[in-house]
Fold each of these.
Amino acid sequence: MGVKKIGKQTVRLSEGVRILAAASTVSKKEGEGPLGKYFDKIVEDSTFGEKSWELAESRFIRENMELVVQKAGLKMNDMDYLLCGDLLNQCTASTFGIMDFQIPFFGLYGACSTMGESMCLGAMLIDGGFANHTLVGASSHFCGAEKQFRAPLSLGNQRPPSATWTVTGDGAVVLGKKGNFPCITEITTGKIMDMGVTDANNMGAAMAPAAVDVLINNFQDTGRKPQDYDVIATGDLGEIGRGLVVDLMKKEGFTMDGRFTDCGIEIFDKNTQDTHSGGSGCACSAVTFCAHFYPRLMSGEIGSMLFIPTGALLSTTSSQQGQNIPGIAHGVVIEGCGEKEDK
Amino acid sequence: MDTSKRAKQEYDQMVKKASPNSPIFTNCLKAFFSGGLICGFGQLLLDYFSKTNSQEDAALLVSVTLIAISAILTGFGLYEKLGKHCGAGTIIPITGFANSVVSPAIEFKKEGLIFGTGAKMFILAGPVIVYGTFTSMIVGLIYYFVGR
């Protein structure tokens, strides 16, 4: 077992990896939501002046990555590695978004858990001594995702109440070693969990077991309980998935209270924005973390947080061939800048 | 966590309980009236076209008119708004068929006229055509042997 491993699925970084800056760029609908005033940039036109949804997503990535590096007071050349991913086939949104930066790149696919995956690996690269700064992020685009996974936008079909709404945008953070910033201290890597869900319109149900597995393993490995964190936030389970996590955790003997929320619930107002079960997509957890949680970690309002982006590992092919929809989730423990309790 | 077969069955029950059903009654009601309105409008058109055309030409003109209206509404992004509320009411009539051809044609325009619009245009309507033809063939055979 590695010296930093503290249990079955969790590692403790030897020195906390600092989150030097976070930035979020979203589209109009996200801007109209409850978190509207916290986003760095809201682009009214979801094509972002590009000629396709795919190129638009690339532009979201490019401009947001430039913004976050600038917010960190650094230059793109200071970044040792770039890690990011998206939902488009072969992660082409990321490819065309970041290729001009000419930074060593690891392309990631964790479906909507990509923000968790990129933060985990980016922090490990720094803690392992392989980098001073890493730039990590994730993105998605409602129109591109609908086109690839579901139906053409102008098709007059109905969405069931369990469906979620893919967030358009990019969230990115710069990780580094020094300074008084929120710290990534522990990482609980998730396993692929398949509990037999096949309904592609109920992703929350498909992903909830993966989130539960990360929660249980994090608590077992660290000896903590849900109440030891100020905030526990899953990625994009939505209302239905969050409810299922609460029920499953109860069976396992843990009480998930009001500290447990879901980025998909935070980002949209389901009553006025017609988003049904909540927000989804890689950008859902990414932009919600950057706009909503990071500033509160920075101010010390949140002392410690367990951030668990969740992903559904399906493709149109696997789904049409009748395969189940397995889920994945990654847990990132982040401690704020405020006075830290002795551990 | 427990991933046994029994746990999966239990989870399936939990998911069913937690996931709200679509409001079937109101959906049916909306579909009934919106579908009926479209068909009623079709009948008005038929009466109008019948004044100056043969019955056969008038029926054709009705189809063409409804398809044109649906295609234009789809192009302006309005049909999806109707479809959201009307559901089957706007999918089942010929207007829905037109929408299912025009919407992928627009969506995949960026992939070019051949591999985009041309190839993807019938991605949704294709199965309807294939199985519509197939069913009519079966019905025709039954009619040939039994119905006469």
Amino acid sequence: MITFTGITKRYPDGTIAVDDLDIEIPAGRTTVFVGPSGCGKTTSLRMINRMVEPTTGLITVEGQDIRDRDPAVLRRSIGYVIQQAGLFPHRTIVDNIATVPFLLGWGKPRARARARELMELVGLQPEQAKRYPHQLSGGQQQRVGVARALAADPPVLLMDEPFSAVDPVVRTSLQDELIRLQAELHKTIVFVTHDIDEAVKLGDSIAVFRPGGKLAQLDTPERLLANPVDSFVEGFIGYDRGVRRLSFFPARLLTPRTDTVVGDDVQAGRARELALRSGEPWLLVVDGERGPRGWVSTETLGAADPGTVVGSLDLVDYGHVFTVETDSLRAALDAAVLSPAGRAVGVDADGRVVGVVAQSELGSAIWSVGAEEAPTAEPVRSDG
Amino acid sequence: MGDQPLIRWDWIARNWDDPVGTRLLEHIQLALVPILIGLLIAVPLGVVCARWRWLYPSVFTGVNILYAVPSIALFFLLLPYTGFTQWTAIIPLSLYTLAILVPNVVDGLYQVPQHVRQAAIAMGFSPLRRLIQVELPIALPVAIAGLRVAAVATISMVSVASLVGLGGLGQLILTDGFRRQFPTPIIVGIVLSVLLAFLVDGLLVLMQRLLTPWTRGSERAARRTSAARREAGAGTTAPATDTGSRRAEAT
């Protein structure tokens, strides 16, 4: 556990970077510091490994006052990942990763063996070991940065906007990778970002900082989205927080209807009867394996010869689907909004159609979760 | 110089060991010792200037003023104290190298990217270890580029020392050639001096390749480096340093 007690950082020119901060960072969890620039989040992070010294206050790591420890020695026990990776351009990938083991005086063979282990852990190829950083892509460099921070197996990992300099696709894969690593390693991670989506995706708890270095709110992502303490926090997390909050509710809460799903070998006349009976303007056509084929409208059915099978009619593309068992309400809503028929197609893990959810049904599901607490603090699957 | 042939090979053959060989060895010594002394002063001085940046403008002005003093004047100025020893040449030549070496060491250190320095601190390097294992190695390509300019400049300047009678290939040109209206020693002196400069420069290029394998075949890295230097060195870069930097990028 890391604790900040009455931490203030005042610079000689009078600027206050961090103002009387009290915060407890639980061990083995990911705590995200988020806020606009100049809110003191990076300064606070850097106080943990004494790269910045507070003007007043006390910081302890595992109960020990960090001022009692030699800064260089303290830092070797705390992993650090920086925005542009900060790799040493003159060292090979394997030696970059082995930096802290070298500093700790491990022998070269042992340090390098450990580095190669970590390369595998973060998804780098063994043949990249002897390359130099500039020969790697930005995303790969950042993987090296994470591996280097983990090399000496420190209990604490500080990450200072580590993924903000890479493109969105790479960022998403690095975030997913971090979630996977954390599930395995259970480090005490302090992660700084200005991106609230990243914070919601990665954090077990989120600390929102306001300009002037004050802590505005410390909460789980779900509670933060549900109950921002004031207009600053609400403005910072954005006006679509309601939609984002749906990521914390499983799509299982929905009851997909099956009476508007027809096989592609059904005759148009029969399908039209089904549609009329259900009162729905669209039917979903599925193949023999219950894989979705497309939407057919009642107009198309009415115009068609009653004897033809629906599979041979003009079908409208079904767009996105959501997986009922593992996706969130947010994914279901997304699928419905993007569907030409205004209805979301729910499938099982093998891609077989479970049923169809109309927007009205989604609406009532969303209504019912509006008031209640989310069943889980973790986002349902990583749909960021 | 009358109707003598430009080169008399028989003179070269007869005088190969002495004076040609002797003068060549003197020349090597008179050039290499100042370069080494220059390095020994420039590296710590550059480190200090990069660490305490407010010092750098005055140090930079200082080494440039020294460079502006005509060498021949400096030789005569030292003569009463050092006499006709090699130190009369070595001391001024060492001081001249500083005008090239110090800015290159400083520029090299300036271009260590801030995020690399931050990462080194955060990994738990002590300041000295960080300097030796991270900052100086990264500064090496620019420093060696400066060293190449300084080495060639010094090798050519040693010849001037001969005007004061301090030896070197200049002496061959002046005493054996010019005074006797005899072209062969002049040509031999010039050719050997140029060859020596080429050889030393080639050795330094080789040294850089061995010491900085990470810069090899990296156009991308070179572009990044030059951009970083333009940022860091704006306003304070001497013409001599610029030459050095451009060379660094070319290699």
